Fold this sequence. Notes:
The protein has 22 helices and eight strands. It is 56% helix and 8% strand. By secondary structure, the chain is α/β, with parallel strands linked by helices. The longest helix is centred in the last third of the chain and has 29 residues, at 405-433. It has an eight-stranded mixed beta sheet with strand order 3-2-4-1-5-6-7-8, with helices on both faces.
Amino acid sequence: MLENLSERLQGIFSGLRGKGRLTEDDINDAMREIRMALLEADVNFKVVKSFVARTKERCLDAEVLDSLTPAQNVVKIVMDELTELLGRTDSKLVLTSRIPNVIMLVGLQGSGKTTAAAKLAYRLQQENHSPLLVACDVYRPAAADQLQTLGGEIGVRVYRGDGKDPVKIATEGIQDAVDNLRDVVIIDTAGRLHVDDEMMDEAEAIKRATKPDQILMVVDAMTGQDVVNVAAAFAERVDFDGVIMSKMDGDARGGGALSIKQVTGKPIKFISSGEKPDSLEEFHPDRMAKRILGMGDVVSLIESAVKVQQEEIEQEQTERMMRANLNLNDFVDMNRQIRKMGGISKLVSALPGGDKAMAKGEVDEGALDHMEVIINSMTKAEREKPDLLNGSRRARIAAGAGVTVSDVNQLIKKFNETKKMMKKMMPAAEEMGGKKGKKGKKGRRRRSLPGMPGGMSMADLKKLQDMMGE
């Protein structure tokens, strides 16, 4: 999503950086190109007009034109304005002291509302809440069955009621939450293929009956700028509090994501990429602006790594990795940790220029799985002591994994490079963990796991990208 816009903007800035000084004509030309790029990305034309006007006014300031790095100043201004366009500050989901909290989801049919309800329930469950899903879509065939299936997959109770009266189901669902000690109720309402009075009347009736603490509108990011008209209609009738932008992993132009906050005044609270329950993420305007401008989102990558690090790590494995004394079992563990962070594609896309590399197909998303198949073809002794892998052993492993000896050799080469990188990073990892590391279950000191962002420089991250994506 938004890759084309990102590529266009980076091309515009690349042209500006090639000039020692910028003139007013240079700024005018750049603003014209930015206007066309935004319009082609299906951003609302009124939003584009005001965005370009504000950006141009700031770029024509004498301090910008007369500075030693005018092009960098222009990039900074565009990033600031993009952040403003997307919401400026984070807008988190805030739960009240009411028990249970009631969250109502609205939106058109096909926007991903039911899936978003399950993802939100999963997220709240991970934050130590006890959510209840309420199926109020009684019109779409198998809508309640879908919610029941999704709820079963994540271990969240689903209330279906009589399957006939949405308002009755919603109110009974809240009582069911009280009876079963659930502290959050998520109401999945019905949608239509377009905005109509019947859908709006029903949404208003559920709102009056349940008095929700939060109303979130689920928006399909692939809809384009027409989503603004839909959001405006919902804002007028049910006055929602924020937006969940679904299908951010799609290949549409994505102008709706850049338009909705400016037109409706409602913030984007979450974005969703993929079908997995954990694919719902908090929306950070500044990070999205940096992604659009090709600067990556290393902060989110670090947060994912920290989340993985918080899981229990055996002391023996940690100490071995701190000494850079890796074996091939550790290599498999690293693979699994990267999977928990969202996979190699998410790791690479968070790096500067990563989205472009992904779009061009320069990253092999199956590289880690390919490595694991080869490692699983080794004996226990070979995995623990890779130095045992002579020519005949490598030939046997290649035959067992259905690959060539060259593939096995390449794996061992990458393993040795990773080992060297771990050794290089060992002092930083020790400094991070050191004597102040938190105690584990048996009173043992736990240190930060080396090889993950935090003890890892940008150069190391890029090297890891190159190693895993070859």
